[in-house]
Amino acid sequence: MRAAVLEAIETLTLTEVDTPQCGEGEVLIRTQACGICRTDLKCLTQGQKDLKVPRILGHEIAGIVAAKGPGVSQVSLGDRVQVAPGIPCGTCSYCLRGQDNLCDSMKIIGFHLNGGFAEYLLVPARGVKNGVLQRIPDHVSFAEAALTEPLACSVNMQSSLNVSDEDSLLIIGAGPLGILNAKLARANGVRKIIVAEINERRIKQAEKLPIDCVINVKEKDLVKEIMALTKGAGVDAAIPCCPGLEAFSQGLNALAKRGRLGFFSGLIGNTVPGFDLNTIHYKELLVLGAYGCSLSHNRKALALIAEDKVRVKTMISRKLPLDEVGSGLEMVRRMSETSIIVEF
Ligand SMILES: [Zn+2]
Ligand SMILES: [Zn+2]
């Protein structure tokens, strides 16, 4: 089969590899769509804490059940399925509490295991048993279903933040995750949604969305602008959807007392210049982390797409064949598209 293999940092090779064979309990998926995201770019350029190379990348996956090993009753040949990439053990204390994205022996497709930038991928027995394959309703395309995973990560973040119709929410960054968070916040009934962005093209895209305010941070001081919009109080919650330290400190500085910060994007660097840490103490701020998504977040995300509560179709600005995955990653680097899907 054809696959894009990350051989080492900065070395992505399009090549022929053996098509995996199903063993006991395993399912072979014929890939139909796989999203390319900034995490894939990070894996390519600097590696990632869960990434083991050589590896076929790609973790936003939808496809068709092409084969199954003995003992698989959960899916049938020909089923259209979305793959939740985290393969939890199902037995540790986190798994038993439904926080399976924090599983002590998590294996993630596209990081520890081969992913969706290939014609086929194997879902291990443990994943099949734990329900990582979800049937896609007929009216949802494979490309839309591929966006289930990033939406599920946003579901995880906003459920930790417990956002509600009483909240004002600042989202920093209008890339695909910023837009998904804005759409999800609307579906969650958030009272006031403010999006901040620096890139002109993304500002124009964000202005088309049903959000209350888009702040151009190239022209305006974000924290001052937030204080003006909230009569000096600050926002109830903020989610920086970008890796910059400045956005992280701006998110914290823009919060009201008892405000909640969603620590959603991994940061480039780990000290926070421009923010006085004592502010967390004085203002009783809450900083909540979110990493990946659980199986229940994944189920909720596909239901939100299927019920048209979060419309992702309009976000897909580019579809590419597998052979052009390298140029897709370059588009992610240039931030020239919203969501990019590899289609098979
Ligand atoms: Zn991703
Ligand atoms: Zn576990």
UniProtKB/TrEMBL annotation:
Family in the record: Belongs to the zinc-containing alcohol dehydrogenase family.
UniProt entry keywords in alphabetical sequence: Metal-binding, Oxidoreductase, Zinc
CDD domains per the UniProt record, alphabetical: iditol_2_DH_like (cd08235)
Coiled coil segments of this chain: none
Cofactor(s), names only, from the UniProt record: Zn(2+)
Database matches in SMART domains: PKS_ER
Name of the protein: Theronine dehydrogenase-like Zn-dependent dehydrogenase
One GO molecular-function entry: oxidoreductase activity
InterPro entries cross-referenced by the UniProt entry: ADH-like_C, ADH-like_N, ADH_Zn_CS, ER, GroES-like_sf, NAD(P)-bd_dom_sf, Zn_alcohol_dh
Sequence ranges assigned to domain Enoyl reductase (ER) in this UniProt record: 7-341
